[in-house]
Design goal:
2 copies of one chain form a homodimer. Chain A is mainly alpha-helical. Chain A has helices at residues 32-48, 55-61, 69-72, 76-98, 108-124, 130-136, 143-158, 160-169, 177-194, 203-214. Chain A has 2 domains: 21-73, Homeodomain-like (Arc Repressor Mutant, subunit A); 77-219, Tetracycline Repressor, domain 2, CATH 1.10.357.10. Chain B binds a DNA duplex through α3.
Amino acid sequence: MDNPFADSVTDSTPKRARGRPRKTLDERDDGNRRQALLSAAARLFRRQGFDGTSTRDIATAAGMQSGSPFYHFKSKDALLYAVMEAGMHSAIERQTKALQGKAPAADAAEAMRRLIKAHFDVLLGPGNDFVPVMLYEHRALSAAERATLAELQVRYEAVWTPVLQALHDKGQLQAPVKLSRLLILGALNWTVQWFDRKKGASVDELTDAAMRLFLRLPN
Amino acid sequence: MDNPFADSVTDSTPKRARGRPRKTLDERDDGNRRQALLSAAARLFRRQGFDGTSTRDIATAAGMQSGSPFYHFKSKDALLYAVMEAGMHSAIERQTKALQGKAPAADAAEAMRRLIKAHFDVLLGPGNDFVPVMLYEHRALSAAERATLAELQVRYEAVWTPVLQALHDKGQLQAPVKLSRLLILGALNWTVQWFDRKKGASVDELTDAAMRLFLRLPN
DNA sequence: CCTACCGATCGGTAGG
DNA sequence: CCTACCGATCGGTAGG
């Protein structure tokens, strides 16, 4: 919206290939340069930290010149925020899918397993740098941005509460629900620091270990 | 040792006030300037991150001019390393004291509680910024420094293993010992992100919750 | 430890 | 999006 290069409103043809030709046909596929910047930023922010990454690093990784990221993003800070917001939305989306059609109270242990697995997938999946950046570069945000993101985080974490409450009521979870949620999510989030897809336990084994560590399961 | 300003060896008087007078009597108490730099660096590295903190910030916080930190430390990197090493040594020391005179296998649950409490104390105690820096600024170290610190971390984490093994043998810990250690330490380390001494649970309540979350305790 | 300074790098912008 | 550029800041050093 508000794009000064947009065709006039009367022109509603669905064809998109008209207008100024792009450099090569498979690159420059319209708005995907923004995506390239986001991905490059996520990877670099994760590896080197926000302050340890220059906008030039990001531009180079996305195949651009040093000033070009600022055509797509107002500031380096806006880039960081966009990465984190994308991360949170993907996490919420995957969490929602994981619980689809499940009544948490009916089989709370199964719901718990799905929540843990979804969390690991979004955290440890190949190329999933967005959520780790969101977890570990929190500090670099402005207060206003932090507040907006906090709403998404509250939404995400709130989904755990009824599941944990049901497990607590059944005696499968012994610690207080709120502290349990904080400690459990901490244990999961910390896996980013040590988990290695190429060796050691798989995500499924990890999920299993977490279930047995936190809950009193039968057998 | 190796201090070029030290008095000659033959002079063994315990008096320390001789020689070039210091600016004021309560400041400049010989080698405590180095400590002031370390403390200031720890606090700032934790709040703003390593890359987000300038050596000028640190100098100002320690009451020095911009170039002076380099009189005490060879580089900004050396300062970071010194902070982390001090953090690890304090953690190991407190851990050792916490288990003093305890045979882990005899009362594994009690040993576990002491390990958790010691960990929280070193992590969440007022002004204890050294260990959090060590946990969250790992990335900024050189490979050689990381390797040296890794030895200390291995020593620290190794203490947990026999305790967890004993708990596992008794059936009080259900998940595999190694994954348990990783997940548990993650849960504890993450508390740095949310724990607030001024509200919510106390360290003792937190320790209690962790015990009940991870172990199958009687009653 | 301070003063004065250097080369390098950084986020961001104007103008096309 | 690129080119050319600016002001600011940074880690570090020489010389005292």
